[in-house]
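Quick check before the chapter quiz. The format below is the same one you will see on the exam, so make sure you can read both the input and the output lines.
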Amino acid sequence: MSPVDNAQQQLIAYLRTPWAIRDRCDRIFTLATADQLQYFRCNLTKLEQVANYVIEVMQQHYPDFQIPFHSRWRHFEVGNVPRLQELNQKLAGFTPLQKAQTKFDLVIISVLLDAGAGSNWQYHEPETGLVFCRSEGLAVASFRMFCQGAFSSDPDLPWQVDAKGLQSLIAHDLAQGFQVSQTNPLIGIEGRLALLQRLGKAMVSLPQMFGKVNPRPGNLVNYLVNYQLLDKLQVTKGLHDSNLNLESCQHNQSLVKPLTDSPPAQEQPATCQPANLQPANLLSATNLFSTVLEGLGDIWPKRESIAGVNLGDVWQHYALKGDNYGSEYVPFHKLSQWLTYSLLEPLQELGLEITELDQLTGLAEYRNGGLCLDLGLLEVKDSAILQQSHLPSSEVIIEWRALTVSLLDQIAATIRQQLNLSATELPLVKVLQGGTWTAGRRIATQLRPGGSSPIQIESDGTVF
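Here is the expected output.
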């Protein structure tokens, strides 16, 4: 490998880490505090006011401050309808591992369908007669489609998502499931369809992650559990330099001892776990994030790429360009982090303890960004920005998203200081849920009809 190739590989690996997201966003934030950005400035005198506004929202929704993680699971119970209880009843005969796989299938497909819906779309839930819009509407619609077997190729196993089911999906199916019509338009329906079809293709190409016989998103559970077991074995036994690795283990079925229970034999990935070694029960959130990026990296539309590798939700900003190779790239990985947060609960139900949760960042999306803008923590330098729509690749949107990530850290720190809580007691993922996302929606509803974003984005259904 040439030096250039090596540099490219190192840059790709770096841009797929939460540290890169925070570092590059903080660089843009530093420029903003010095008023050296083209489109935005920060008014940090508003920080305490914003923190107090979020605290007010948190107290209203979680008066006991028992705040769950910010994840897709919250949306499935909108309207106080016990849909997850309904799902658990359907899965009553499943083993713990099969339940986790099914929940991975559901939440992965729902998150990937969770790009901005626009202000004119709504979903009428036949089962309850309730009407929902935006993210909650997308959640309920995708939940109902999942339960009806819309993403499964096997009529006898409706509660799954499989590669064949996704690859055979057509626009009519998706439009029908989301009740799309001329009077009920949904932004980015074609982009959403293409995303799911590419997921089906990606799963087939990565059997080690998604399974060989029946590739499913849920088989990532097996991969994660076995990856953690292998990692613990290597650390515990000091086998870093031996030939004992995942590839060789796949040919040694005699060593298999799964964490809880086994899927069908042909689907069970092998592990290298001797009988006298206790299963690992720790899972790093950063490792989970890396797994999500690795497994789903090829599904995103082709935007920025390095050496032919699709970077996904990564963009360039001229102000960061310097002497170091790749310094202009700004990663966000919004949907991938949203998905990572949403995968935590099924893994916790399996008995895994999540570590390094504080390494992940806030989500660079329009509710959090809108909160900062609507309450004056961010200011546009030209009001014309608010009158036009912008592509995600525009530096207006890149600046806005980067500043949102950095300011979420600032808001979280101020909230903890106000409440005298530590980062362990009130991690960022709970601040988001409690929290900034809800507060962003609330202020948007107060300021604009329909609660639309203060800045309009030309979405393709795969970023926001």
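If your answer matched, good. The longest strand covers residues 40-42.
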